[in-house]
Amino acid sequence: MSSDRRLIALAYACLLIVGIHVGWIGPFLPEISRVLGVAIDRAGLVVNVAAAGYFLALMAAGAMSHRLSAQTILIIAMALFAAGLAGLAAAPGWMALLGAGVLIGLANGAIDVAANALIVDLSRDHLASALNYLHVLFGVGALMGPLIVGGALASHILYRWVFAAGALACAAIGLALIVTPAIEVRVPQESSRGIGHLLVRPIVWIIAGVLFLYVGGETGVGEWLFLYLRIAANAGATIASSGVSFYWLGLIAGRITGGRIAHRIGARELTIVGSIVSALALAGLILAPRWPLDAAAMVFLIGFGYGPIFPNMVAIAADRFPSQVGQVTSIIVGGGAFGAMSVPWLMGHAMVSATPRTSMEFAFGVTALMVALSFGVRGTKQSTPL
């Protein structure tokens, strides 16, 4: 395998690891809560602090991008990920758990910057399709995560051992990146006009708002769906973890579909349709949460609708501001990070203080608002070339 193909494959492996962690953290939360002796909504804050770490990584990556190659950033990311998962495995209490979550968030942000930089640099002639296919790997990992949890629960394997195995896998990917001959792919050089030029563009704020709602909703549903199915649908632990896998399977199907039809349907239109599908499916899940007949289909469709939204928003931003791809991506994905910090926490609080249904009703409201905001993505185009 040539060096560039091997590096791309390893970048895909990094995104796969990100997806696995996102997929297994929610189903593991009840066990983490029990072992550490903390309320489940406090245990769920590990996702929120990871989002904060993600945001910090986006800012740091912008400062380092002209000195470090994408390959070097991925090596650093996998070292952080291995340390974070090892920290989750060994955490004796709540504060140590949150500290490990921050490390994982830093790793996630670095992976997003470097992996997207590789794809943008190598696939500008079919950007939307390429980004959809890249993020399919996230969905594959997120599908695997709940299945791993289901197997661990059925075999009475403590979450600590699963996280420790994940840390070893991250270390192996990092080592493979180190021994792979380097190719010169960096986060693209930015226009001298600076980030302030982007911050006055309404379209940038609209896209960032869509990603705030999307990442918040997608992360919140992924984090709390396991517990929702356990309570509202009266599903067993193994069945509920399989239900979360249906959600991520839908996400994979949505991104594969988005990649295949991106050359025929505009990214904005595909985002609007996907948002509507997810909103209607969330309404169906709330009104008829019977497992497996009604809930399985609704869970799949929630993920299916969400699937193409993130890569489509990144593609639109990169197309609008081709000489400031790194900066505009940091802004809009930063909006998504703020969504991941806030929406899952609010859903968890609703899960504990109100009812599981209230939690999913909040996710429905977020997704319905995303439908409305998606119509504004076309509203403002840059008036001058960059």
Characterize the structure shown.
- The chain has one domain (3-378): MFS general substrate transporter like domains (Growth Hormone, Chain: A).
- It has helices at 3-36, 40-43, 45-64, 70-90, 94-122, 127-154, 159-179, 195-199, 202-232, 237-261, 267-287, 293-306, 309-320, 325-353, 356-374.
- Helix 1 (3-36) runs antiparallel to helix 5.
- The chain has 386 residues and is mostly helical.
- The longest helix is centred in the first third of the chain and has 34 residues, at 3-36.
- Residues 379-386 have low confidence and may be disordered.
- The protein has 15 helices and no strands.
- What's the SSE pattern? HHHHHHHHHHHHHHH
User: Can you identify the CATH superfamily?
Assistant: MFS general substrate transporter like domains
CATH architecture: Up-down Bundle
| Number of structural domains | 1
Strand content: under 5%
Number of strands: 0
Determine and state the CATH class: Mainly Alpha
Shape: globular
User: Structural class per helix/strand content?
Assistant: mainly alpha
Instruction: Count helical runs.
Output: 15
State the CATH topology: Growth Hormone, Chain: A
pLDDT average, as an integer?
85
Radius of gyration: 20 Å
